[in-house]
Structure formats: C-alpha cells, structure tokens
Amino acid sequence: MRHPWDRRLGVWWIAEDHPDAPAIVDSPSGRTLSYGQLAAAAHRVANALRANGLRVGDTVAYALPNDVDAVVWQLATTEIGLRYLTLNTALSADEFAAILDHSGAVALAVHPDYLERFHRVPAEARLRVVVGGPVPPDCPPGFIGEDRFLAGHPATPPPDRTQGDAIRYSSGTTGKPKGIVRPLDARDPGEALNAQAVFGRAFDFRPFEGVHLVSTGMHHAGCQSFYLGALNVGQPLAILGKFDAEQTLAAIERHKVTTAYMVPTQFVRMLKLPEPIRTKYDLSSLHSVVHSAAPCPLQVKKDMMAWWGPVLWETYGGTEGPATIAKPHRWLEKPGTVGRPIRGVRVRILDDDGNDLPPNEIGNVYIERLDGQSFEYRNDTELTRSVHRGNAFTIGDVGYLDDDGYLFICDRAKDMIISGGVNIYPAEVEGVLAEHPAVGDVAVIGVPDPEWGEQVKAVVELVAEATPSPELADELIAYCRSRLAGFKCPRSVDFSAKLPRNEAGKLIKRRLRDAYWAEAGRRV
C-alpha cells in the first residue's frame, strides 16, 4: 500500500507543504534551519550560480566542512542541472589541484580553513567563492566573499529547473582517484528528490519520524546518500563536525536519533568505550542505522546488534552504484551476508573468463543494472571498458552467492594474498585480530617471501593502554592460530602508531604495501 506521504516527499515539496518543519536541528556552526529556510538558501545559491554564467552540465566543486553549507550547495547545484563535486577536505594541495584539473570544474566554493591549499587552482575554475566565513587577508587570488556572490539574488526557485548529479571521485584506496559520471536525464528536481525519498524508505526511514545523525564526512557518497534519503522523507539532520565515540552516543540521546549512516570503524571505537560510558546513554530511539564502505568484522556486528538491538542495516556497492541490502533480521539469519540485490539490480559471480559461477563458488562480483543505466570514468575510456562485462561492472571485490541468492564478500581482489598458490582473504584475518583486546585497528597485507611469493603480515594499531613488544606480537599470532587455519595467520606482526584510513573508514593498504615491496623488485 502506498504511504500517504509518498506523493509529496522530497525537500522541495516538503518546503512547499511544510515550510516550518525542521530540516537542520544541530550543526557545528550552531545554525538550524526549517525546510522553508533550507530551500530558500539553496535557491539563492542556484540563482547566483546561474547569474555567473553556469549552465547545465557544468561542474561546481566545493571543499566544505560538515555543516549546513554542504547541504545548501549540494541542493543548489542539483536543481539547475549542474554536477557537484564534493572534495575530501583532508586532501593535500596537490591532490586538490589534480582533481580540479581532471574534473574540469568551472566554479569552486571553499571554507576559509582550507584556503591555504588552493593557491594552484586551474584557470577553468573561473568562479571562486569563500563560503562559511570572511575572506582572510592572505586569501589566494580570484576568490570573492559569499556576501558579494549572493548579493541581489532572490531566494525563490530559479526558472527552468532541471535535475543535476554528482561527479564522484572514488576513495583512491587502490590507486589514483577516478571521476565517476552518469548521464544527466533532465528530470524535474521535485520528482528526482522524491526518488531519493524512495531510497530512504528502502531502509525504513519513516516519513517525519525522528532525526537523522550525520557523523561521517559529508563529502563521502555514502554519507550523502543517506542524509539526503533522510531529508527527503522529512527527517531533520543533526550534524556532527567530526566523529567522537562518546559524543556520538550523547547526540543520539539528546536528539532522540532514529536513523544514521556509519562505517565499521565507528562501531569498533564505540565498542571499545568503557562499559560505564557505553551504558550511560539512552539509545532506545534508534531504528535504522545503515553501514557500508568497508567490511564489518563478524564479531563487531554481532556485538553491536547485542548492544543496540536489531537496527543495523547493511548495504553493499560502490561509488559506481548500489547493489544489495541486508536487513537486520536477515543478517542475523545469515551472519556475514551483505544482503540480496536491490530492486532493478542483478548480482553475478564470474570467473576470470567471464563465466557465471554456481552458488557458493568464489569469484569476481559483478553488478548489473537492469534498466540499462550506466556510468563512465571521466576521460578514461579504457578504465571504463576494463571494469565492464556487457552491462555488468565490478568494483573489484571477490565473493559468492549462497543458495538463496544472498551475497557474501570475501575481500578486495587487489587485497587478496596468494601464498604458495593458496588464496588468503585478509578481511577474514582482520576480523579475528580485531577481537583481541589490545588491538585498536589492524591491516593484514601480503609481503614478499622468497619461497612462497607472499607471506601474511599484520600491521597493528594498539589501544592506548597497550605497549608494542615482541611478546605481544607472538601473542597476537597465537590468538589468530587458535581461531583460524595456520596458513591464513600472520607470520609476523608490525606495530603502527596510526593506520592509514580515509574518512569513509577504508584502509588505504597500498600505502602499507608500498613500504614492504619497494625493495622486492616486483609489485603486487
């Protein structure tokens, strides 16, 4: 049965029908907005962009912190047919310059805190705006203040509205980031955001019930998908500037949060809080907490379910497109699954020759949209071709489908270790080591071995109370051997003060591997 709100969901329609409904209830800057105010702010930016000569298909890049402006600029660009590019604010000056150059962005919005890394902006980015604060005296050339940019432009809907889209750059965990674009389809923005509401409803985000917590980086595609899914069903946002385990629990209690998007490293850090802190806060309002972006160790998810109840939803896919959903009760029936394919998508398991494999056989995971929609990597026809087999594409994972069609991911194909001709999946080993009380974070990689080709090494970030030692390394290896077959277990353990993860929680293993393979005369 159609929900009574389904016909008028979406930010633009909610702003018309319920302009006083809350849209932002908390933010690092202290700004709160109703739906009417949020829509007006976005319209004003959209009108200013149009007045500065931007046209359908142009790209607008922005480097903005977790706060209200990130939502405003995202909505503004997409209601006038522009592509928005959300820049990871942790990037270096060289990385910013490379992505801006590759994207062809013609406009750039930057918070004052990041301006020092924008002294080498490509000439194509002719419109440059400082957003979220005054223009500093040492501002790079060509930037103007937000007040000047917006002056004289109305807060009413711009004429000839047409839906835009993102140009998304992948996280770059296995190499240089890739710009992912899809064809613009000239949809009405109201209809498009209603579709985002349908997306939210798929994860049981209930219209006008509760608050959505934003606790991951708002530049990340996963975070954006779910805060938009929440906004478009009428759930206001409580935005955290950065993740802190205890403050996240406090925010859930304070705002009676019902929905959220998180990544597994957040679960690990919350689980490692002392018991008195974990039990201090009322988390009973939680209804749907979605996680993705990185593998979640089996025991971590079991522990979270035991703590928060059956509220954890999992989704699998990539920046290139979504693939599956694992509802809480289904995951409890099939621990470790990432779910079944979403409507309109088929998941296939192929061998290296492109042949479909039967259930329970491990192979390359391919995702196929049945509506024929596609994507491409900007200015890289060869890379686009290499990840496709017909209409199906891969994001580089290996896994299998069980007899009921549920997908299980074994690991990233590029992370798989081949030792003596045997395939070893690091995610399985990491899941075991993460359970050790001294382990704060762990990466398992293959390092050179003259006899076996590769051997298994664990690189461990310890909790604050633990101290690195040869004895602890031996203890971790023994701990692993008591739970896994010997050939899967680390032959050695190194300790690191901080493992390289991006803000989506993904391990950047290439940085670790490079140090060990630099002198080997070969690469994996």
Describe the fold and architecture.
It comes from Mycolicibacterium hassiacum (strain DSM 44199 / CIP 105218 / JCM 12690 / 3849) (Mycobacterium hassiacum). It holds the Pfam family AMP-binding. InterPro entries: AMP-bd_C, AMP-bd_C_sf, AMP-binding_CS, AMP-dep_synth/lig_dom, ANL_N_sf. Keywords: Ligase. It is a single chain. The protein is of the alpha/beta class. The chain has 16 helices and 29 strands. Among the domains are: 35-187, Rossmann fold (3-Layer(aba) Sandwich); 344-415, Luciferase, domain 3; 419-517, GMP Synthetase, Chain A, domain 3 (2-Layer Sandwich). 29% of the residues lie in helices and 24% in strands. Strands 2-1-12-11-13-14-15-16-17 form a nine-stranded mixed sheet, with helices on both faces. α7 links the parallel β11 (211-214) and β12 (237-239). α1 packs across α2 and α6 packs across α7. The longest helix is centred in the N-terminal third of the chain and has 17 residues, at 35-51.
What are the SSEs and their pairings?
Elements: H1 11-17, E1 22-26, E2 33-34, H2 35-51, E3 59-63, H3 68-78, E4 83-86, H4 93-103, E5 107-110, E6 127-130, E7 143-145, H5 146-150, E8 165-166, E9 168-169, E10 179-181, H6 189-202, E11 211-214, H7 221-231, E12 237-239, H8 245-255, E13 257-262, H9 264-271, H10 275-278, E14 288-291, H11 298-308, E15 312-318, E16 321-326, H12 328-333, E17 340-341, E18 345-350, E19 363-369, E20 376-377, H13 381-386, E21 388-389, E22 392-393, E23 397-401, E24 407-412, E25 417-419, E26 422-424, H14 426-433, E27 439-449, E28 453-462, H15 470-481, E29 492-495, H16 509-517
Parallel strand pairs: 1-12, 3-4, 3-5, 4-8, 5-6, 6-7, 11-12, 11-13, 13-14, 14-15, 28-29
Antiparallel strand pairs: 1-2, 9-10, 10-20, 15-16, 16-17, 18-19, 19-22, 19-23, 21-22, 23-24, 25-26, 27-28
